[in-house]
């Protein structure tokens, strides 16, 4: 790989900016200063440094984000804060995007990556990758509702695939429910619309699992971290 291409992929700067860094003799390869942007390097074996700080090559980046409410699942937006805006300058990398989407007022697990193949596998309708949510509901969810979910709820514009509804808790006094919902698809406002079709309303929604990957319970809302190698393998096996 050319040195300037490597530096651009590492989000050090634009092609012209990294060429200027090289010209300023701030880049070294295996502890030797390099002055040619065209220099060929082995990104997996050579030690490339900027101002003496080693740059570790990473073709793909994978973050687990605990998305807060009020942030949209997009790479950029003129009016609203996006999930990409939550990344630090050090962690931001060109091409990173959210795998799928969570509604603006939905919280929980969201994967950020620049690995298009992984995203395609996770989102492909043919794969039926499961997504698991915890929902706070205004109204009492019933066994009849569970059966409706299992049979596939009919909405105005499509019929949902069979889904699982687990009733976690019921508050008869407040007439509210806490439920776990597992889907094999993820259409616009689908969970809310399915609950509404049962005559109830979702007041809070949080995704806790996608495929085989569980949201880290210690990860605060608005925070993110890199996936471990074990978690990445779980995700790829989803």
TrEMBL record:
The keyword RNA-binding applies. One of its GO terms (biological process) is enzyme-directed rRNA pseudouridine synthesis. GO terms for cellular component: cytosol. Keywords: Isomerase, RNA-binding. InterPro entries: PsdUridine_s_RsuA/RluB/E/F_cat, PsdUridine_synth_cat_dom_sf, PsdUridine_synth_RsuA/RluA, PsdUridine_synth_RsuA/RluB/E/F, PsdUridine_synth_RsuA/RluB_CS, RsuA_PseudoU_synthase, S4_RNA-bd, S4_RNA-bd_sf. Its EC number is 5.4.99.-. Residues 1-66 form the RNA-binding S4 domain. Pfam families: PseudoU_synth_2, S4. GO terms for molecular function: RNA binding; rRNA pseudouridine synthase activity. Belongs to the pseudouridine synthase RsuA family. This is Pseudouridine synthase. The lineage of its organism: Bacteria, Bacillati, Bacillota, Bacilli, Lactobacillales.
């Amino acid at each position: 790989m050319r040195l300037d291409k490597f530096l651009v992929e590492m989000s050090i700067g634009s092609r012209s900016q990294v060429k200027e860094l090289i010209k300023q003799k701030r880049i070294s390869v295996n502890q030797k200063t390099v002055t040619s942007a065209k220099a060929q390097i082995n990104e997996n074996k050579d030690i490339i440094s900027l101002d003496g700080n080693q740059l570790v090559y990473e073709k793909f980046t994978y973050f687990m984000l605990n998305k807060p409410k009020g942030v949209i699942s997009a790479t950029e937006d003129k009016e609203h804060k996006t999930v990409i805006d939550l990344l630090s300058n050090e962690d931001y990398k060109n091409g990173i995007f959210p795998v799928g989407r969570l509604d603006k007022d939905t919280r929980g697990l969201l994967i950020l990556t620049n690995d298009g193949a992984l995203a395609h596998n996770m989102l492909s309708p043919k794969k039926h990758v499961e997504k698991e949510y915890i929902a706070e509901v205004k109204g009492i969810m019933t066994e009849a509702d569970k059966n409706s979910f299992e049979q596939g709820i009919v909405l105005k514009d499509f019929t949902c695939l069979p889904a699982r509804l687990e009733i976690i808790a019921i508050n008869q006094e407040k007439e509210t429910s806490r439920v776990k919902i597992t889907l094999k698809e993820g259409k616009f406002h689908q969970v809310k619309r399915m609950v509404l079709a049962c005559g109830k309303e979702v007041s809070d929604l949080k995704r806790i699992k996608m495929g085989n990957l569980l949201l880290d319970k210690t990860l605060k809302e608005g925070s993110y971290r890199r996936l471990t190698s074990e978690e990445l393998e779980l995700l790829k096996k989803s």
